[in-house]
Every structure is written in structure tokens, then in C-alpha cells.
């Protein structure tokens, strides 16, 4: 073994401690706020405002039930659901064919197209918000679920395209070719052979688009007034609300997203891996 | 009845010409093998016949129907792919019956044909399994059964055995030959393995750099290669070559020996002889033995004749040692001669 290959054992140990410390810190960064959210959402109003706090929640549903009765909350929840569902459908309807084309066909400008898809995410939304609001007012899309869904779809499409691209690339063209020789047209080969194989992945992609829309705050706050989504609603109202309500609101927002993302994490890992090619 | 005619087919990929003016007629029920090294165009030609590629020019006919503008499903063909392409989300039964279901055949007919072809390929006990539970050899059998179940006019096979281990390849080769002969289907088989080609084919089309160099039965291709390339590609170990100079009418000087050869205007020819057509004798070509490989069935001797590397396959009882000098005499009726410029066989 040459001298160059050797790292001093002390340096290696220090590196390892640094690595572990960073991992612990990052986990805590995410988990500690979640823990507080969880504990306080499930506690009564008094417990939240008291000090010192107990480590375990009381499992008192007082905060949550008050939250549920808060005027307008259920409408906001419904709006969030509608917008997120529309986003999900539109982003898959547009993103999946793009992913298929990227994985199967060679065409001029393919590399540029891929780059542009990613670059849409680089654009800061606050810059666009005002011009978008004006345009929406002019076209009558202002304060509608569809209008907001359009914006959210734009945010979700890059992910839909990338995930479906990696999914389709994982299906060998030979399988489709075999289907063509066995009596399928291009379309039937797609529905009978490709679709069943990528359905889990497409579902994951759809759920991811759903979550993007569900969590989005800025565009929702700017582009809706009467028909607020849950995120915009909470932003607007909980400024003035008591702290235990804020915890309950945060809990309601975070929990579905957390569950969905956990369910589809496998596909997200694959997507990041492939997207780094 | 399924006779295939390929008329003047050419294929360009951008500026690269993959196929140059291919003309070939395959008779009904003939087993035609397209043989060649990687990149020679054999798979491209097969895919053009299948409809998975479009020819840049030329026509493909099956019987009296011109098919080169039809979709693969309308050509009456079935294909077996190199990587099997067995559908992973369907059972073996559903795989084999896939084409039949696409044709909307009644359930009892699908069941009968699937079971019959599964028995033919010895996989009737695997009908309920998925491809993930099968070995490579079993998947290959499913792929073949799936193609046969279609009862096509022509069955196309793209190196179906190349992903199998050596022993399995040997078994499958024999099985395939039997199954296809019985099914009375015209078959086109692509391979780079010349032993497979020799064993399976009614006729071999040897391809090189986008051309068909020779299309003939295996023994003709072996004994009378049309070009030097064919002689060196077919046969293991390959043909030996030595330069020859004219010595008179029909007499040629090769490494200090005289042999009877073609009466032509050439001043120089390439002398060719297969390793197994050489035997030790008192007179003949002087060979300096370099390597001796006793292979059990015979002895492979690598030697130098006139500075050129030569291989001879001798009887297993022959006693030779490296460093020795021996004399090898070729069998006169097996000597072949090639034009050094055009590489073509000269008679």
C-alpha cells in the first residue's frame, strides 16, 4: 500500500463523527418540529400554553375538534382537495406522454427539452405571482380552482415527466415489440403491456403531484380570495388565532403529506437517482 | 405455404449503410440461418422482415403479398427475441395465449393451443407461474411456445440461444430443430454462432458488412466458401491461408511445394486448406510446431509454415512435441484457392 492511499486514522475518525453529527442534526431538524406539532395538536388548550411542557401528548382532542368547527375550515379543506386532485390528473395527463416520448424517441432538441423542463422549477414563484394574478383576472380564472390548478400543474409537471421518464426507461422496448408482433397496435401494446407494469410508479407520481399542490402556499394565497385552499386559509386566519389552534392546523396540513410521501418513497428515491444521470 | 422474397433491400441509418442491396428467396418450410459477426446487418434484416424497422428501399414479399408496408401484426409472422421478452405481469399461460387472445379466439381454442404448445416445449407444468419465477431456459421455452402458438406463416428468431449456458444451448438447439421441423413453418434464424448455423440450417446466408456473401446449404458453405471471409468465419479452428505464386499452367508454388490448382491468368493466389484436411506425411509443407493442444477427440497443433501461422487438427494418437519440425500434406481435393484482391473463390 502506498503512502498516498493512507488517510491518518485520526482524520478518518473525525470525518466519521462529523458525518454522524450531520445526519443526526438533519434528522432532528425535521423530526423535532414534527414532534412538537404532534404533541401539541393532541393536547388541550391549557396544556399547550403551560410551561414546562410534558413530553407526551395527553391525546386530548380539544384542539383538533375546535379546529374542525372553525368557520370556513371545511370549505378550505374541500378546496384543497379539489385543486390537488385536478393538479394530479392534469400533471399526469401531460407529464406521462412526455416521459414516454423522452424515453422512446429520438428527436431534435431533446436535450434542450429536458433542461427546460427542469428550469421551470428554477423560476421564483413570487416574481410570477402578480403578473399571473392580473392575467387570471383578465381571463376570469381568478379565484377559481381550475386557475390555481393550472399553476400547481406547472409546478408538478417536471416531477411527473422525470418520474415517468425513468419508469418508461425501465420497461424494455422489446416487450412492446413483442406485443406488436402478437397482434397489438402501438396503443394496445401500451395499455396491455406497459401500463400494467408502470401503474405503481404512475400512482406514486400522481400522489407526488397531489402533495405538491396540497402543500403549496404562495400561489394559493395570491390567486384565491373566497375559495381559499387550506394552506392559504391557515396563513390568513391563524395569524390571529391562539397557539394551540396553529398547532392543530399545522398538524392537519402535515399529516396527509407525510403519509403519502412515506408511501411512495421508493419511487422518489429512484427518481432522484435517475435524474442525477 | 410461406415463401419469402427479399428484393433489393437497403437500409441506411443516417449516413451509415447497414444493408447493401439484399436479394434473397427463402422457400416454404425452409430453415434459413442468417449468420455473421456483430454489426453485419443480420438483425437489421430480420427486423425489416418483422416490421420493426422500415427498409430504406426495396421490397419484402411473403407468398404473393407485398408486406413491407404492413404493421408487424398484419404480416403473419411471429418472433422470438434474444432477451425472451416474456411479459412479467402475466402467467406463462397468459403469455403463450396473448396473441390468440388479441385475435379474439374462443376460450376453449386458446386453452387447447396453449396447452399443446406448452407440452411441445415441455413447460406444461409451469403454466401458472410468472416469468420472475422461471429460469432463463424456461423463459426461452415460453417465448418459443408463444410464437408457435400463433401458428404463423414465418417464425423469426433473433439469437434466441445466445443468453443460455453452453449445455442448455446444446439441448435447446436439438429441441428447436425437432419442434420447428414438425411445425412445418418457414423459419429465419439469426446467429453469430457458426456451430448453431451448421447444425440447424437448411441453408446458411453468411453476411458481412451489410452484404450476403453466400447463401447455400451448410456443407457447401463449409466445403466451398464463396469468399475468403466465409472460409475464415466458418469452421473452428478456421481455414488456413498461404500465398501461392504461379509456376506454370495449373501449377502453383506454395511454401516451397508444388500443387495443382486453377488454370487462370492470376500470378498470385491465396492457397487455403482446413485444419482437419492436413495429415502428417513424408512429403509436404514443412511446419515448425509451436503449440500442441491435446483436446481428447483430436490434437490441435499450431505451427509456422513459411512464417505464417497454421493450425492442423490431427488424430488424437499423433505424437508431436513443440519445437519439432513436421511435414503436413493437405488432402488434394480439399485445397481451395482465392483471388488475393477480390477475395473470391477461384476454381
Secondary structure layout plus pairing:
The complex is a heterodimer of chains A (277) and B (347).
Chain A: H1 9-41, H2 45-49, H3 62-69, H4 73-104, H5 110-119, H6 125-139, H7 145-169, H8 173-181, H9 186-215, H10 218-223, H11 230-237, H12 243-263, H13 265-275
Helix pairs in contact in A: 1-12, 3-12, 4-7, 4-9, 4-11, 7-9, 7-13, 8-9, 9-12
Chain B: E1 4-13, E2 16-26, E3 31-35, H1 42-50, E4 57-62, E5 65-66, E6 77-80, H2 92-96, H3 98-102, H4 107-120, H5 136-149, E7 154-158, H6 166-183, E8 186-191, H7 194-200, E9 203-208, E10 211-216, H8 218-223, H9 228-233, E11 240-248, E12 251-254, E13 257-260, E14 268-273, E15 278-294, E16 298-305, E17 308-315, E18 325-330, E19 336-338, E20 345-346
Helix pairs in contact in B: 4-5
Notes on the structure:
The complex is a heterodimer of chains A (277) and B (347). Chain A contains 13 helices and no strands. Chain A has helices spanning 9-41, 45-49, 62-69, 73-104, 110-119, 125-139, 145-169, 173-181, 186-215, 218-223, 230-237, 243-263, 265-275. By secondary structure, chain B is of the alpha+beta class. Chain B has nine helices and 20 strands. The A-B interface holds A 172, 174-175, 177-185, 188, 193, 196-197 and B 50-52, 71-73, 77-79, 81, 83, 85, 87-89, 98-99, 102-103, 146, 150.
Structural class by secondary-structure content of chain A: mainly alpha
Number of helices, counting only DSSP H or I runs of 4 residues or more of chain A: 13
Based on secondary structure, the structural category of chain B is alpha+beta
Q: In oligomeric terms, what are we looking at?
A: heterodimer
Which percent bin holds the helix content of chain B?
Answer: 10-25%
Low-pLDDT windows of residues of chain A: none
Radius of gyration of chain A: 24 Å
Q: Give the percentage of residues in beta strands of chain B.
A: 35-45%
User: Which bin fits the share of residues in helices of chain A?
Assistant: over 70%
What is the CA-CA span between the terminal residues of chain B?
Answer: 37 Å
Largest interface: A-B, 16 and 21 residues
Q: What form of chain B results from the Cα inertia axes? A: elongated
Amino acid at each position: 500500500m502506498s503512502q498516498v492511499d493512507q488517510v491518518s486514522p485520526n482524520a478518518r475518525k473525525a470525518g466519521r463523527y462529523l458525518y454522524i453529527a450531520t445526519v443526526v442534526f438533519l434528522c432532528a431538524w425535521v423530526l423535532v418540529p414534527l414532534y412538537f406539532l404532534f404533541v401539541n395538536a393532541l393536547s388541550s388548550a391549557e396544556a399547550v400554553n403551560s410551561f414546562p411542557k410534558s413530553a407526551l401528548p395527553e391525546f386530548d382532542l380539544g384542539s383538533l375538534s375546535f379546529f374542525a368547527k372553525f368557520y370556513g375550515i371545511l370549505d378550505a379543506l374541500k378546496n384543497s382537495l379539489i385543486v390537488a386532485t385536478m393538479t394530479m390528473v392534469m400533471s399526469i395527463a401531460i407529464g406521462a406522454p412526455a416521459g414516454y416520448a423522452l424515453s422512446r424517441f429520438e428527436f431534435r432538441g431533446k436535450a434542450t427539452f429536458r433542461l427546460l423542463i427542469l428550469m421551470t422549477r428554477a423560476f421564483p414563484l413570487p416574481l410570477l405571482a402578480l403578473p399571473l394574478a392580473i392575467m387570471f383576472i383578465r381571463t376570469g380564472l381568478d379565484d377559481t380552482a381550475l386557475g390555481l390548478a393550472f399553476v400547481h400543474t406547472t409546478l408538478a409537471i417536471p416531477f411527473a415527466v422525470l418520474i415517468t421518464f425513468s419508469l418508461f426507461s425501465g420497461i424494455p422496448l422489446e416487450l412492446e415489440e413483442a406485443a406488436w408482433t402478437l397482434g397489438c397496435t402501438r396503443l394496445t401494446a401500451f395499455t396491455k403491456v406497459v401500463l400494467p407494469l408502470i401503474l405503481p410508479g404512475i400512482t406514486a407520481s400522481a400522489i407526488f403531484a397531489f402533495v405538491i399542490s396540497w402543500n403549496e402556499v404562495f400561489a394559493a394565497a395570491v390567486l384565491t380570495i373566497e375559495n381559499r385552499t387550506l394552506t392559504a386559509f391557515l396563513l390568513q386566519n391563524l395569524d390571529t388565532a391562539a397557539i394551540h389552534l396553529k398547532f392543530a392546523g399545522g398538524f392537519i396540513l402535515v399529516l396527509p403529506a407525510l403519509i403519502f410521501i412515506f408511501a411512495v418513497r421508493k419511487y422518489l428515491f429512484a427518481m432522484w437517482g435517475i435524474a442525477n444521470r | 405455404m410461406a415463401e419469402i422474397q427479399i428484393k433489393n433491400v437497403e437500409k441506411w441509418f443516417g449516413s451509415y449503410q447497414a444493408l447493401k442491396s439484399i436479394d434473397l428467396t427463402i422457400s416454404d418450410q425452409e430453415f434459413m440461418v442468417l449468420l455473421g459477426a456483430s454489426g453485419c446487418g443480420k438483425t437489421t434484416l430480420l427486423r425489416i422482415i418483422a416490421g420493426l424497422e422500415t427498409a430504406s428501399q426495396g421490397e419484402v414479399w411473403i407468398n404473393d403479398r407485398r408486406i413491407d408496408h404492413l404493421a408487424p401484426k398484419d404480416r403473419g409472422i411471429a418472433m422470438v427475441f434474444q432477451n425472451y421478452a416474456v411479459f412479467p405481469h402475466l402467467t406463462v399461460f397468459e403469455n403463450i395465449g396473448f396473441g390468440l387472445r388479441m385475435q379474439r379466439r374462443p376460450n376453449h381454442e386458446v386453452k387447447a393451443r396453449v396447452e399443446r404448445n406448452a407440452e411441445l416445449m415441455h413447460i406444461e407444468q409451469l403454466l401458472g407461474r410468472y416469468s420472475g419465477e422461471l429460469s432463463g431456459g424456461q423463459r426461452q421455452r415460453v417465448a418459443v411456445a408463444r410464437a408457435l402458438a400463433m401458428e404463423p406463416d414465418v417464425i423469426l428468431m433473433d439469437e434466441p440461444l445466445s443468453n443460455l449456458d453452453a449445455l442448455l444451448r446444446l439441448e435447446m438447439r436439438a429441441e428447436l430443430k425437432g419442434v420447428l421441423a414438425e411445425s412445418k413453418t418457414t423459419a429465419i434464424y439469426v446467429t453469430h454462432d457458426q456451430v448453431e448455423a451448421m447444425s440447424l440450417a437448411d441453408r446458411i446466408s453468411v453476411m458481412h458488412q451489410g452484404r450476403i456473401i453466400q447463401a447455400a446449404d451448410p456443407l457447401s458453405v463449409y466445403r466451398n466458401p464463396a469468399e475468403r471471409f466465409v472460409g475464415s468465419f466458418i469452421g473452428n479452428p478456421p481455414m488456413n491461408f498461404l500465398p501461392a505464386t504461379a509456376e506454370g499452367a495449373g501449377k502453383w508454388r506454395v511454401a516451397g511445394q508444388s500443387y495443382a490448382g486453377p488454370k487462370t491468368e492470376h500470378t498470385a493466389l491465396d492457397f487455403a486448406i482446413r485444419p482437419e484436411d492436413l495429415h502428417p506425411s513424408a512429403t509436404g509443407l514443412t511446419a515448425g510446431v509451436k503449440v500442441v493442444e491435446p483436446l481428447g477427440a483430436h490434437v490441435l497443433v499450431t505451427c509456422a509454415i513459411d512464417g505464417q501461422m497454421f493450425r492442423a487438427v490431427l488424430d488424437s494418437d499423433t505424437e508431436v512435441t513443440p519445437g519439432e519440425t513436421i511435414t503436413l500434406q493437405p488432402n488434394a481435393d480439399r485445397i481451395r484457392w482465392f483471388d488475393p484482391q477480390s477475395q473470391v473463390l477461384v476454381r
